Amino acid sequence: MTLLQLTFGAVFIGIGATAVMDLWLVFLKRMGMPSMNFALVGRWVGHLMRGRLAHAAIGKAEPISGELALGWFTHYAIGIAFAALLLAIQGASWALNPTPLPAVAVGVCTVLAPLCIMQPAMGAGFASTKTPTPLRNCLRSLANHTIFGVGLYLSAFFLSGL
């Protein structure tokens, strides 16, 4: 595989996996479960670009112009980066003949990003410890990222058939 093919693979797999996760989040929302507000992700990224990493409560931070679009862009860019990580770990040959275990394992490991970086920086504490239901929030994040891992596999499987 050429670098261009690997890049295309990472973009396609990352977008596909993130879309699978988003479909899962829509399903949860229709079942009455709260979902991530990507405007707050955009707000956090907007403040990060201005030099501020951590907030006591991102919801109370000054809004950023275009924060919803920035949040969605960031969400998909992170999905692409995690797909690139999967391809870097597994190699190009995995994308040609994908198997579920590496994809799901990477998906599960990606839960470390929100638990250890984003939640503390957005004011929710390490692993949601500053929220009323930290265990439930952590389990929900783990489930979401496991679904993302399934999406990594499904997207790679679809791409391998093209």
Automatic annotation (TrEMBL):
Annotated transmembrane regions: 6-28, 68-89, 101-121, 142-160
Key word Transcription regulation present: no
Source taxon at top rank: Bacteria
Keywords: Membrane, Transmembrane, Transmembrane helix
InterPro entries: DUF2938
Pfam families cross-referenced by the UniProt entry: DUF2938
Protein name: DUF2938 family protein
Organism: Eoetvoesiella caeni
